[in-house]
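Reply to thread "Modeling small-molecule complexes from scratch"

Following up on the discussion above, here's a worked example others can learn from. I took a protein sequence and the SMILES for NAX and predicted the complex. Inputs first:
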Amino acid sequence: MLNGTEILTTAQMRAIETAAMDSGAVTGLDLMERAGAAVAGQIRLRWPKPGQATVLCGPGNNGGDGYVIARLLHRAGWRLRVLGLDNIPGPDAAEMKRRWCEIGPIEALTGDALRRPGESSDVYVDAIFGTGLARPPEGAIADILRYLGGSGGDRAFFRERLVAVDCPSGLCMDSGAFLGRRRQPGDYDLQARLTVAFDSPKPGHLLERGPESCGELVIADIGLQDWRIIEPGRARSLRPPALTAIWPLFAIPDRRRMGFESLKRGAWLAKRESRAGHKFEHGHALIIAGDFGHGGAARLAARAALRAGAGLVTICPPRSAMVEHLGPPDALMRRPVDEAADLARILEDKRITALCLGPGCGVDRAAELLPVALASGRACLLDADALTALAASGLEGLHADCVLTPHRGEFARLFPDLAERLAGPQPPGPTGDPDQQSHDRDAYRAALAGMHGPAFSKIDAARAAAGRAGATVLLKGPDTVIAEPSRARAPRLDRPGRAAIHSAFDVPWLATAGAGDVLAGLITGLLARDLNPFSAATTGAWLHAAAARQAGPGLIADDLPERIPDVLDQAASGAGGDP
Ligand SMILES: NC(=O)C1=CN([C@@H]2O[C@H](COP(=O)(O)OP(=O)(O)OC[C@H]3O[C@@H](n4cnc5c(N)ncnc54)[C@H](O)[C@@H]3O)[C@@H](O)[C@H]2O)[C@@H](O)CC1
Ligand SMILES: Nc1ncnc2c1ncn2[C@@H]1O[C@H](COP(=O)(O)OP(=O)(O)O)[C@@H](O)[C@H]1O
Ligand SMILES: [K+]
């Protein structure tokens, strides 16, 4: 299991490489040789018997890596076909290309060459584009990428044989979107068996289409440690399905420290054990429930808040629905809340440290109670109906101790413009595929021409939302992103708050009714225990997925809180890994 570590944006990665090269301690050629050697080594590990490899080299340094890989595989006894472009790449890639040319020929990088009958290879190395992808692939290269993605009917063939250098080409490493393609899974998206990335994962390896497209992800050390901090003992190889990590991410390259922050979960647990504290020292969480017949969601949240270690948890349905909450757990307290004044009265008790509003609440009731909840200044977890109410009120009254936990639909209600950007860039035409939309081809090309740089990512969206809300935002999904507002006194665009990705692609059974309510309860319990909003949200996301992992397929939301003790036990003993 992978422990929490840093991810780097492509800009940060470039900053580190530049710092390393500027120091004079390492050259670009050295780095390229190491990168190529890492990929060739991983290939030889998986295919111990030398076979035939086709290496596809693009116009930049990613292609340079490809020429190194070809040379090293050739030296190891492989038969090589190298397809490349007739361009003059940067000096390092040009030198690697020259060294390959002393060994063998370069064929033109065209679909026809790739498709030539009788030229089947055991391994195809995709060294076309890496971090330098600046716009959607077009023309012959787009054709090649579609072919590798199975447009010739060979999807399974390439999925077994494709090794991507740094990333599958066309994937935007800052967002996990295929540039110029639909954000949803598309036909012929590249799917590699293995991706070898350098130094650190990038957001695109973990978000959206990245995990599926990359296949097994190996992070190769190319000796850039001195220009960043590496957490001791960190795992360096991972399979996306096994990812459970929290990945703090900072936007500002800082050569001394790239911003890793251990969540110190072990220490946090130990602190709890060592406190000879009264139950109130572990906080008191209030869970607002809805009308009769809708109490299940709030009860799931309440159970989760108890399991997360809140000292006390009180559920607050309307008086008419109290009877629905008379069953277990007996640890749960019950108090009726019919209207805002009732809630205000309960909140006069200063020992109440956090509230959860939204699950099963009903939009009208959430709208009525929201102002009192927010005005109380208590830590507030807002989910489900509270988010709908919040969207209608224009985010009014939010403060820094609030955590919003929208899924995509709720996010779109709260931040329609951000959701729209996140759904794009959408090339014109119903399918967005120029081959299927020939009448729209000109418009498509015009749109592509205007596209530069990384696509707007889920991290960008969550960060912008957190900045706007002045609160922590957890945007749900298999690639949950958590962002906090800027902690700078005056919010600065170039200094956003922390962000983390929590990857749960390996537990698709978590997408089940009520799972979100449990997450809301876990985070509320942690808020009640005085974790700061960002830590509560990241820790809650981790606990949630870890519980789902333990429960396995067949999970229903009710199972999740019951798994928490085992998850905590394993985390405390180190067996479950420190997220
Ligand atoms: N910078 C370094 O020192 C190192 C870089 N390495 C490799 O270098 C890669 C980054 O290299 P580059 O920055 O040269 O970038 P890439 O090789 O990823 O691609 C950049 C080139 O492709 C062109 N390009 C971008 N999008 C295009 C499109 N849609 N259609 C046609 N051409 C397009 C650019 O104009 C540029 O010529 C990394 O991913 C990694 O594989 C490694 O060798 C390690 C060391
Ligand atoms: N494919 C998936 N794999 C893993 N986790 C997922 C997946 N889809 C959704 N989730 C997680 O499941 C939970 C579902 O929450 P939500 O959408 O609010 O559902 P509900 O309202 O039914 O509880 C969230 O924590 C989300 O991150
Ligand atoms: K690549």
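What I'd highlight from this example: The chain is about 40% helix and 10% strand. The pocket of adenosine-5'-diphosphate (ligand 2) is lined by residues 407, 476-478, 480, 504, 507-508, 510-511, 513-517, 519, 544 (CB under 6 Å). Questions welcome below.
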